[in-house]
Each structure stands twice: as structure tokens, then as C-alpha cells.
Specification:
Length: 465
């Protein structure tokens, strides 16, 4: 459960925060002053803090400076009234994740909190290389592989990470480009500085420029205040531009300027702003073809090519498949809180015979699906074939009335409490589908299921959905 610290001197606002965030399954601790918040932070770890700037005694800016020293990788969201946005902007330049104006809409705050928590985990979660220590570091993400191509990648990361060189990571979708970028960041000379991740295709083109570079007050309709962009927020840190091959041409020109001149210009502004960031970029596109088509700038292409890492597709390192499968099985079993099942040699052979067009990501999804099918029983070849080739997980046996997941439990030699487990399994599947139908809205889902919202939350926690 993610843990959030709220620092605000308004008792009613703190009470409302606790109620709303606990309903969203967060653990919440609140403090009425910066001093109290700092004391709490020294005693416990948090995933995110929400800090008001107007506080009795020590003000929010002073408190923020101390908070960043105590927990440099914990995202901090600043709350501010409209008339004090200059201080909020200053805090953002100092490393705050973002700021929000009071009064705010609850959905906007919840979305910002979720983004902040994800960003914090991205920075803090360690990335190990090689896979030898996966039992000793269960909470770490691990780049798995002992093949010659992967050994070359580890060596390259070790050589380029401590430098200030711009790095381009190339490889097919699902090969682990994001993990490699994180490993470079964590082994760089800037591991305690900000790490901003921007997916160039996940953000609409109309918003990408302002997200990257920020904007000045009045730059466009709705720009009520100045906004600091992600690149400026990452000053002295690292920016990871994922899917840069799909970046629009006008924004490519601004990235080129950043690389050449170490400066940016906010949207609607005419002032050069010096920034010191290291750029790591990644793409699965054929950039050479993009050059020919005119969809990628030639000068930016050569600027990014200072150091290029090519991640091999899984089909070019089949010797790593069993290692990856074992790690994925351990990881998913731990997340689902089930005993890691055995996997038969025939099942492993099914993995080795597959071409893996989706690479490591596809393999992890297949292992997760096979684990759901088996539910603790040894994973057989037919389970693996079904996981690889079936579009869904509710397929029935050819000659049976029960779905495959139910029949596997019946014939599992170690199965106990069969009826209870089948009931839980059925409830988990129905609740998941209903939540998906209502886009995660628990109130609507509870109403359709005919249970109260607290009962639904209790079942979500019990069934670990």
C-alpha cells in the first residue's frame, strides 16, 4: 500500500484528504506544520508528500528544502493559493514534482498523486544486471541474461553510465529499453538528482511541447500561470525521452537546441533558460528509414548517435529464455502471494520453440498467464501452449463443462479447500471484469455487484486484484 504524507495547517482539508485517499487504498499520515511533517518523515518512509506553502512557523519553501535532503527521491506535490504561485514555481525549480492551485478538483489531485508515486518508484527502484542476485534483491528490477549479447550490454552500461554522453537505446518493443535507461541513470554521476521520464507517444502532440518545455502565463487560452516543464524540473538530473522516433518535427528542433546549446525556451516566452540535463533517448523505430521519409531530423539523428546501445531481441538470445522464465515466475508468484510452482521440461521446451515477437514483455505476460492457469500446480506443456496462443484465459476444455482454470485445480494433487479456492477465483474474475467495465470506478462497480463499496475494497484487498 502506497504511503502519503499530507502537510497542511487546515484541519478540515487534512480530514478530507485522509477520507478521499483512504478510499483510494492509500495509507495517509498528516501533519499540521512543516516541523511536524519533517519529524514524521525522519521516522518513516513515504512514497509521496503533499505540502502546502503557507504554514505556521517554518514556511513551505523552507520545509521543502529540508524534506528534499531527507528524502531526495520522494516526489513532493506543492499546494498553493492562486496569489502565491511564484513560490510554487520556485519550489518546482528546486525539484518539486509539480504544484496544484487551491481550490482543486479531486480527480485532478488524484491523477497528479498517481503520476507522482509512479515517478518516485521509477527513480527509487534499483535495477540489477545479470540476474545472479535475484533472490537476494527481490524488490529490485533485474535485467536478465548471461548470453554474449547481454554481456556486451552490461559492459556498455558500465562504460557509458559515468560519462555525460547523450545515449540512444535502440531495440524492438519489449526488449527492456526502459530498464536499461534506469540502470544508466542509477550508475551515473547524477543518481540522486531528478529523473524525468517522457513517453513521446503517450502524450498528445498538442500537449507534448508544454509538458517538456513549460509555458509562460498567457501563452495560450487557459495558461493562467507560468508552468515549469519537465526538462527544466530535471535540471542537474537526467531526462529519458522514450519513443523519440515518434516525436513531432517541431519539437525535435527544440530538443536539438537543448543538446547543442544546453538551453530551452518556454512556450510563449522569448527568454533562453539554461538547463543542465543529460539526455537518454530510446526508440523502436527504424530511424534510417524515418530520415529517408523526412519524419526525423538528420541533425538530431547524429546528435543522438554519440553512444548507441542496440538491445537484442529475445530470438537472438534463446539461451536466456529459461533464466527469464524462472525470474518471471518468481516475480509473479510473489506478487500474487502464491507458492512458486514447478515447471516441467516439456513446458520449458514450449517456451524455447516460440519466436517471441513481443520479446521479454511477451514472455513475462505468458508466464503470468500460465501461473494464473496453474494456480500452484506444476506448469505443464499444455498450460504453456494455452498461455502462449490463447487470446484469453477463460477457455474451456474440449470435452468439459468447466473452464480450464477450474479443471486444473480439480486434478492438482496438492489441492485443498477446492470449493473455497474456486469461489475466490470466480469472484476475482467477475470483480475484475466489472471494474474494467466501469473504468475502475469502485462505486459503480459495487452498485452493479450488489455490495457496498467498503465490501468491494475488502474483496479487492483479499483477492489481491
Amino acid at each position: 500500500m502506497d504511503k502519503i504524507l499530507i502537510v497542511d495547517d487546515d484541519p478540515q482539508l487534512r480530514k478530507s484528504f485522509v477520507r478521499v485517499l483512504e478510499n483510494e487504498n492509500y495509507e495517509v499520515v498528516n501533519a499540521s506544520s512543516a516541523e511536524a511533517g519533517i519529524k514524521t518523515l525522519r521516522e518513516s518512509e513515504f512514497d509521496l508528500a503533499v505540502l502546502d506553502l503557507r504554514l505556521p512557523g517554518m514556511n513551505g519553501i523552507e520545509g521543502f528544502e529540508i524534506i528534499k535532503k531527507i528524502a531526495p527521491k520522494m516526489p513532493v506535490i506543492i499546494m498553493t493559493a492562486y496569489g502565491t504561485t511564484e513560490n510554487a514555481i520556485e519550489a518546482t525549480k528546486m525539484g518539486a514534482f509539480d504544484y496544484i492551485l487551491k481550490p482543486f478538483e479531486i480527480p485532478d489531485m488524484l491523477a497528479l498523486i498517481q503520476k507522482g508515486i509512479e515517478a518516485g518508484k521509477f527513480m527509487r527502484q534499483k535495477v540489477e544486471m545479470g540476474g545472479e542476485n535475484r533472490e537476494e534483491a527481490p524488490e529490485s528490477e533485474i535485467i536478465i541474461g548471461r548470453s554474449v549479447p547481454m554481456q556486451d550490454i552490461y559492459k556498455s552500461i558500465g562504460r557509458v553510465a559515468p560519462t555525460e554522453a547523450t545515449i540512444l537505446i535502440r531495440g524492438e518493443s519489449g526488449t527492456g529499453k526502459e530498464l536499461v535507461a534506469r540502470a544508466i541513470y542509477q550508475h551515473s554521476s547524477r543518481p540522486e538528482k531528478p529523473f524525468q521520464v517522457i513517453n513521446c507517444v503517450a502524450i498528445p502532440e498538442t500537449l507534448l511541447e508544454s509538458e517538456l518545455f513549460g509555458y509562460e502565463k498567457g501563452a495560450f487560452t487557459g495558461a493562467r500561470t507560468q508552468k515549469i516543464g519537465k526538462i527544466e524540473q530535471a535540471d542537474k538530473g537526467t531526462v529519458f525521452l522514450d519513443e523519440i522516433g515518434d516525436m513531432p518535427l517541431p519539437i525535435q528542433a527544440k530538443i536539438l537546441r537543448l543538446l547543442q546549446e544546453k538551453s530551452i525556451e518556454r512556450l510563449g516566452g522569448g527568454k533562453n533558460i539554461a538547463v543542465n540535463v543529460r539526455i537518454i533517448a530510446a526508440t523502436n523505430r527504424d530511424l534510417e528509414r524515418a530520415l529517408e521519409e523526412g519524419s526525423f531530423r538528420e541533425d538530431l539523428y547524429y546528435r543522438l548517435q554519440v553512444v548507441t546501445l542496440h538491445l537484442p531481441p529475445l530470438r537472438e538470445r534463446p539461451g536466456d529464455i529459461n533464466l527469464l522464465a524462472d525470474y518471471a515466475l518468481s516475480k509473479h508468484a510473489r506478487e500474487m502471494d502464491v507458492k512458486k510452482p514447478d515447471i516441467t521440461p516439456e513446458a520449458l521446451k514450449e517456451l524455447e520453440n516460440h519466436s517471441w515477437p513481443g520479446n521479454v514483455r511477451e514472455l513475462f505476460n505468458v508466464i503470468q498467464k500460465a501461473l494464473i492457469f496453474s494456480r500452484g500446480c506444476p506448469i505443464r506443456a499444455e498450460d504453456m501452449r494455452r498461455a502462449i496462443h490463447s487470446p484469453g484465459e477463460d477457455m474451456q476444455e474440449e470435452n468439459g463443462d468447466l473452464p480450464h482454470w477450474a479443471q486444473r485445480k480439480i486434478f492438482c494433487p496438492d489441492q485443498e479447500n477446492l470449493l473455497g479456492d474456486l469461489t475466490d477465483e470466480f469472484q476475482a474474475r467477475v470483480i475484475s471484469r466489472v471494474l474494467e467495465h466501469h473504468n475502475g470506478n469502485r462505486t459503480k462497480a459495487a452498485r452493479q455487484l450488489g455490495i457496498s463499496r467498503p465490501t468491494l475494497i475488502s474483496k479487492i484487498e483479499k483477492l489481491e486484484l
